[in-house]
Amino acid sequence: MDPVRNPYAPGAGQRPPELAGRDRELQQFDVVLERIARGRPERSLVLTGLRGVGKTVLLNALRSQAIGRMWGTGKIEARPDQSLRRPLASALHMAVRELTPRHRDPDRVDAFLGVLKAFALRSAGDDAKLRDRWQPGIDVPAATGRADTGDIEVDLVELLVDAAGVARDVGVGIALFVDEMQDIPAPDVSALCAACHELSQQGLPLVVVGAGLPHLPAVLSASKSYSERLFRYVRIDRLDREAADRALVAPASEEGVAYEQAALDALYEATEGYPYFVQAYGKVTWDNAPTDPIGADDVRMAAPEAQAELAVGFFGSRYERATPAEREYLRAMAALSDDTHGVVPTSDVATYLGRKPSSLSPARDALIKKGLIYSAERGTIAFTVPHFGIYLRRHATV
Predict the structure, then answer these.
(1) N or C: fewer beta carbons within 10 Å in the chain?
(2) In this model, does residue 138 exceed pLDDT 90?
(3) Which runs of E-coded beta strand occur in the chain?
(4) What is the chain's mean pLDDT, rounded?
(5) pLDDT at 340 over 60
(6) Residue 344 contacts residue 374 (beta carbons within 8 Å)
(7) In the sheet that 373-374 helps form, which strands lie side by side, from edge to edge?
(8) Beta strands in 127-268 (DSSP E)
(9) Residue 191: is its pLDDT beyond 60?
(10) Residue 17 included in any domain
(11) What pLDDT sits at residue 396?
């Protein structure tokens, strides 16, 4: 097949040519946007799932829906140990700028921008150097007495309430999208939950859409007990057989290429429907197939190359981030997870390594912080990356 015409896109967060298996989530978000626009109560949204299931792709698709309804939007990617103030201020600035041309009261917009500037400037101390201060490109002076206390919970509530007011003036809303939400520092998680709670109580048109690893609901619940009722949680999982086939067949059909049924069987067996793997195997299989239609032999010939690319770019890059002690912990998990779908009791890891559980806590906590494992439930851990245990059993020796 002509590699220039290859339709598959195995990139991080890159939208595939056919966004298969996510119709329900897209339709549900349309309902959320319409209800909020009509002043109806609606909860913010949280997407959870393993890496490689397409959370970021779906997050971007939901943002496109909001943009299509003329909403103001902004997106951030949370990072460990980084305050929300600066990235959230930038995202909210972008969202309001999208609404400004339609707002009839420039003074009202300027008043909000002054509040936004005051909020952002609190990200650095009064004695911070100029290079460490946020330069938002906002010409109006910073407001006083609003969103400038230095208490992130108080300030964020006031800021988002004011932003929602600007959107309501225009007859639309604001949607803030937060990727890697589990990495938000604990005080900022609490502030974000409090702000969403206040927005919900006042029926204001601002919605937060977060995406993160499977333990994100536990992170939110630990911050605010009412977060279980504050957000609508949507589990994003691997594609079923029909959706996985559609993700492969539909883009190929656009190029006039077909798949034999045996080839689709082999691809689903190899990928198990994980969207990133579907795109990765689809791309390599296309490049290696000599003629149309693509057959099972083409899949078998391409499989080693696809596995090699995943071993370097998807698995190996993550394994390299771990220290020797953390790698030892990962290899123990891999050895124990063969028959448990990746979920392993922490006590079993300690027994396997001949160590006291307390001595392994630093390695476990560091791996959780790096996003390589998560606590599936109390006393257990699991890989955040599908097939990571398989990779470790085959390749990781040191």
Answers:
(1) C
(2) no
(3) 44-48, 72-77, 174-179, 206-212, 231-235, 344-345, 373-374, 380-383
(4) 90
(5) no
(6) no
(7) 344-345, 380-383, 373-374
(8) 174-179, 206-212, 231-235
(9) yes
(10) no
(11) 62
CA distances in angstroms from 138 to 76, 83, 94, 110, 121, listed in the order given: 19, 21, 11, 9, 11
From 287, 318, 349, give the residue that closes a domain. 318
Length of the chain: 398
Same domain, 210 and 120: yes
Q: Is 84 helix (H, G, I), strand (E, B) or coil?
A: coil
Q: How far apart are CA 248 and CA 286, in angstroms?
A: 10
Structure tokens given for 352: 């396997």
Q: What are 166's two structure tokens?
A: 């600007």
d(CA 394, CA 134): 47
146-149 contacts at long range (C-beta below 8 A, 24 or more positions apart): 146/115, 146/118, 147/115, 147/116, 147/118, 147/119, 148/118, 148/119, 148/121, 148/122, 149/122
- Token pair of 345 as six digits: 């009791």
Strand order from edge to edge, sheet including 44-48: 72-77, 174-179, 206-212, 44-48, 231-235
Least confident stretch, 93-102, 132-141, 316-325, 351-360: 132-141
Cis ω for the linkage preceding 293 (within 30 of 0): yes
Q: Is 357 found in the same domain as 310?
A: no
Is there a contact between 203 and 39 (Cβ–Cβ < 8 Å)? yes
Q: Number of structural domains, the chain?
A: 3
Residue 11 reports pLDDT greater than 90: no
Rounded to 10°, the helix 241-254/275-288 angle is: 40
118 burial via Cβ count (<10 Å: 0-12, 13-18, 19+):
buried
Query: What is the pLDDT at residue 60?
Result: 96
